[in-house]
Amino acid sequence: MERDFVLRQEFSLGVASVVAQPCRVSYATSEGNVGHYTPDYLVIYTVRDEPVGRERRPMLIEVKPKLDWVRHWREWTPKWNAARRYAQERGWIFHVYDESRIRTLALDNINFLRRYRAYQFDQEDSMAVIEDLRELGAVSVDYLLAKHFPAGFRAEGVAHMWHLLATRRIECDICDELSLQTEVWVP
């Protein structure tokens, strides 16, 4: 599940970096001892949260299967509260992610697109699609296929579109189902 979390974060153009085991947080255990806890990741963002009008705060993340955290939440609450305080002191936020936040349609789409990353296409063809898309704004994959790939080359055109998405040269809402009707744009 951690691999899937990292894969999903690294696919986002808004993520600058994902740091594994970024810090060690001390906390008081239920027995009164000092315990130490290492969160799984720190996600640092590159973009502003435009609807809110401010920088996106870094996010300290613990990745746990839901069954585990539901079973152990009382035991783990002290360390997670300490991580929350630690994050707040630095202007970050703290979240626990389980499979419901990681293994989503977006992850399915990312895994589907990964197979197209290594494909090779003519750079002139890629640039023609990208430049056209830059001028048009957001249009469907189907529109670009009709415009740039004649009927006999449609299958290659579809693979080309998926390659451009996989390599982040064009963008879509990765949370929606991928299809020929998917709207794409230049990031």
Description:
By secondary structure, the protein is an alpha+beta fold. The chain is elongated, with a radius of gyration of 21 Å. 44% of the residues lie in helices and 20% in strands. The protein starts with a helix and ends with a strand. The protein contains 7 helices and 10 strands. It folds into 2 domains: 2-103, Trna Endonuclease, Chain: A, domain 1 (3-Layer(aba) Sandwich), CATH 3.40.1350.10; 115-184. Strand 5 and strand 6 form a beta hairpin. The chain has helices spanning 2-11, 66-89, 99-102, 105-114, 123-136, 141-148, 154-166; strands spanning 15-20, 25-28, 34-37, 41-45, 48-49, 54-55, 59-63, 93-97, 139-140, 183-184. It has a 4-stranded mixed sheet with strand order 1-4-7-8. It has a two-stranded antiparallel ribbon with strand order 2-3. A two-stranded antiparallel sheet has the order 5-6.
Briefly characterize the structure:
This protein is α+β, with helices and mostly antiparallel strands and 187 residues long. The chain contains seven helices and ten strands. Helix 6 packs across helix 7.
CATH topology of the largest domain: Trna Endonuclease, Chain: A, domain 1
CATH architecture label of the largest domain: 3-Layer(aba) Sandwich
Q: Total helix count?
A: 7
The termini sit apart by: 28 Å
**CATH class (first level) name of the largest domain:** Alpha Beta
The order of strands across the largest sheet is 1-4-7-8
Taking the sheet with the most strands, its summary is:
4 strands, mixed
Q: Provide the residue-averaged pLDDT.
A: 94
Percent helix among the residues? Answer: 40-55%
N-to-C series of helices and strands: HEEEEEEEHEHHHEHHE
The domain tally reads: 2
- Which value, in Å, is the CA radius of gyration? 21 Å
Class from helix and strand fractions: alpha+beta
Number of strands: 10
Report the principal-axis shape.
elongated
Beta-strand portion reads 15-25%
Low-pLDDT windows of residues = none
